[in-house]
């Protein structure tokens, strides 16, 4: 018997080597090949595309199609999806069901897009496809014969692309629902969730990452950051001078007043603050980021500070969010012993006492 496996090769079998095969167990239950054939035929399936390891089943199913008088569908057998170590993808390599990926925060359209690209392409450099795009462009003859490696990092990146392509209102609602479901936010008409989503979206690839992104923004790990090796250049660049000026600006109400005007207010204030200290660029913004957010890295400072200020007055965030108010941040800031910190961060060469001659 010869079958044409669409767009790949003709596959032939000598039926004498097959012999009789079971289609029903002794207890009256039909076996897999019989069930699949009847199921596909009654649903009028026209194309059957599956892994190459099912090729032996195709022969048996083709014989059942013929025996029952059903129209024969077109069959195509594609290479297996492989794990990074080039072995067959299995449970030991991670999540194995679409339900698990959904719980992890993956979007259906991103999963379809990524799976379509495992061994297929449209002949261009494009990797982003909507489902409508795939319906229009997919052809079986562009499927590769070699196995494709499942790359979880690439899948996550792909999900981020689809996440950020969602209409703005839908994206904001998705983030807000996530934050409310996990208890980080509560009902509020303040617009806090909208501003948070707009600020954080570019750094989020999975909906479930929105929780960590927001709680990280609202936290204030100042002491841990100041004592880190990465912060040494910032600390040693006379950060105490910036801290002193910042505390004065907060105590006078100047900084708070600027933040009530949002990003624009921050931009105006920081420009004047930099001039007063004769600092600009990295020499100004790095110490400000550390002193105000407690971190060395994060989203754009104007948006971050406007959101932190809003979190303190809008009533949208819950204790579960790890939020540290501006008042509390400045209380912590005032308690820092800059002289001791500078000594702790001196390099061995700087702190070494010259040997007596």
Task: Give the arrangement of secondary structure elements.
Blueprint: E1 2-5, E2 9-12, H1 32-42, E3 47-51, H2 55-68, E4 74-78, E5 81-82, H3 98-103, H4 108-116, H5 131-137, E6 148-149, H6 152-165, H7 168-181, H8 192-200, H9 209-218, H10 222-226, H11 232-236, H12 239-251, H13 254-259, H14 262-277, H15 282-293, H16 301-314, H17 326-334, H18 338-344, H19 348-351
Parallel strand pairs: 3-4, 5-6
Antiparallel strand pairs: 1-2
Helix pairs in contact: 1-2, 4-6, 7-8, 8-16, 12-15, 14-16
Domain Aminoacyl-tRNA synthetase class I anticodon-binding: 260-310
InterPro entries: aa-tRNA-synth_I_cd-bd, aa-tRNA-synth_I_codon-bd_sub2, aa_tRNA-synth_I_cd-bd_sf, Glu/Gln-tRNA-synth_Ib_cat-dom, Glu_tRNA_lig_a-bdl, GluQ/Sye, Rossmann-like_a/b/a_fold
Keywords: Aminoacyl-tRNA synthetase, ATP-binding, Ligase, Mitochondrion, Nucleotide-binding, Protein biosynthesis, Transit peptide
Task: Please tag this protein with its features.
357 residues; mainly alpha; two-stranded antiparallel sheet; two-stranded parallel sheet; aa-tRNA-synth_I_codon-bd_sub2; mitochondrion
Short description:
Residues 11-157 form the Glutamyl/glutaminyl-tRNA synthetase class Ib catalytic domain. With 357 residues, the protein is mainly alpha-helical. The chain has helices at 32-42, 55-68, 98-103, 108-116, 131-137, 152-165, 168-181, 192-200, 209-218, 222-226, 232-236, 239-251, 254-259, 262-277, 282-293, 301-314, 326-334, 338-344, 348-351, and strands at residues 2-5, 9-12, 47-51, 74-78, 81-82, 148-149.
């Amino acid at each position: 018997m010869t079958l044409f496996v669409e767009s790949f090769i003709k596959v032939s079998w000598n039926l004498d080597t097959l012999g009789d095969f079971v289609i029903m167990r002794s207890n009256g239950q039909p076996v897999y090949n019989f069930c699949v054939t009847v199921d596909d035929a009654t649903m009028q399936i026209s194309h059957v595309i599956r892994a190459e390891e099912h090729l032996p089943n195709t022969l048996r199913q083709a014989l059942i199609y013929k025996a029952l008088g059903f129209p024969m569908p077109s069959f195509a057998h594609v290479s297996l999806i492989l794990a990074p170590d080039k072995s067959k993808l299995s449970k030991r390599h991670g999540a194995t069901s679409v339900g698990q990926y959904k719980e992890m925060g993956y979007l259906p359209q991103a999963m379809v897009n990524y799976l379509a690209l495992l061994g297929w392409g449209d002949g261009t450099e494009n990797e982003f496809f909507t489902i409508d795009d795939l319906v229009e462009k997919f052809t079986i003859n562009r499927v590769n014969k070699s196995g494709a490696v499942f790359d979880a990092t690439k899948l996550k990146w792909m999900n981020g692309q689809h996440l950020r392509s969602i209409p703005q209102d839908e994206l904001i609602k998705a983030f807000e629902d996530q934050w409310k479901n996990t208890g980080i936010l509560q009902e509020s008409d303040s617009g806090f969730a909208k501003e948070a989503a707009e600020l954080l979206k570019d750094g989020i690839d999975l909906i479930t990452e929105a929780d960590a992104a927001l709680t990280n923004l609202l936290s204030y790990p100042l002491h841990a950051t100041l004592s880190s090796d990465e912060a040494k250049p910032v600390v040693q660049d006379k950060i105490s001078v910036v801290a002193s000026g910042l505390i004065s600006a907060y105590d006078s109400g100047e900084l708070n007043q600027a933040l009530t005007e949002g990003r624009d207010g921050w931009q105006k204030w920081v420009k004047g603050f930099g001039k007063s200290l004769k600092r600009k660029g990295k020499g100004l913004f790095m110490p400000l980021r550390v002193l105000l957010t407690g971190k060395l890295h994060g989203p754009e400072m104007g948006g971050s500070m406007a959101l932190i200020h809003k979190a303190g007055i809008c009533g949208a965030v819950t204790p579960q969010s790890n939020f540290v108010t501006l008042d509390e941040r400045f209380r912590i800031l005032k308690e820092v012993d800059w002289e001791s910190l500078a000594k702790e961060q001196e390099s061995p060469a700087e702190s070494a006492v010259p040997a007596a001659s």
